[in-house]
Amino acid sequence: MTIRVLLADDQALLRGTFRLLIDSCPDLSVVAEAADVELTRRHHPDVVVMDVRMPGTDGLAATEAICADPALAGTRVLILTTFENDEHVARALRAGASGFLGKYVTTDTLLEAIRAVAAGDSLLSPGATKDLIAQFLAAPRPAPVVTPELRDLTNRELEVMKLAADGRSNDEIAAELRLSVLTVRTHVQRAMTKLGARDRAQLVVLAYKNGLVPPSAPG
Fold first, then answer.
1. What is the pLDDT of residues 86-102, one digit of tens each?
2. CA 137, CA 117: separation in Å to the nearest integer?
3. For residues 123 and 100, is the Cβ–Cβ distance under 8 A?
4. To pair with 200 at 20 to 30 A between CA atoms, which of 25, 164, 189, 210?
């Protein structure tokens, strides 16, 4: 199936460049591009490639609106950022963004990121993003309230969830626990289903909110 993409960026030249790149792939298609995200509800794209800095409704507020809209439950948000403001990135993650990319990433990285996010995966393993998660989601705050649904997770699902929140990829988790990658994916998917997480990124957020991963200083 073709992955439908909406480009939300205030730079027309950048949007045009991304459109040419994405439309050149047989499995990807740009359904709309704009300087805002009003078209999201009309087109129901699989992935919104969102600039953090947007005129009018900024990219962070737009991400919050998209991820909070039940009618857009199937839409994932991929944030474009230069990591200029760590708090902005953390806010987008809390709001429901599925991943983050710098604006000057390679062609292959952008395309694979769109595919990964559309598949329900997230871009949370790079060191920079992991540091942001540790700094802002695991920072000292009131004692976490454990989500009741956590009690429904098996010990193995909890273990996999903790490792995912620590920034480990499925391959790394499989190697550490001596499981197949397919088995790890199954545990991740089951944990997401039980917790009502829309994707892997939200599973990580829940792990931090419930105190499954201890705070750590950014490295």
1. 566 667 777 788 887 77
2. 21
3. yes
4. 25
The C-alpha angle with vertex 21 and arms to 19 and 22, in degrees rounded to 5, equals 65
Instruction: Quickly tell me which residue has 């953390």 as its tokens.
Output: 90
Residue 216: which H helix or E strand, with range? none
Which residues, other chains included, contact 2 with Cβ-Cβ below 8 Å and sequence gap of 6+? 26, 27, 28, 29
- Of 136, 146, 149, nearest to 192 (Cα)? 149
Residue 102: both structure tokens together: 């710098």
**Sign of the CA dihedral running 22, 86, 129, 95:** negative
Local confidence band at 139 (pLDDT 50, 70, 90 cut-offs)? low
Report the alpha-carbon distance of residue 206 to residue 172 in Å, rounded.
20
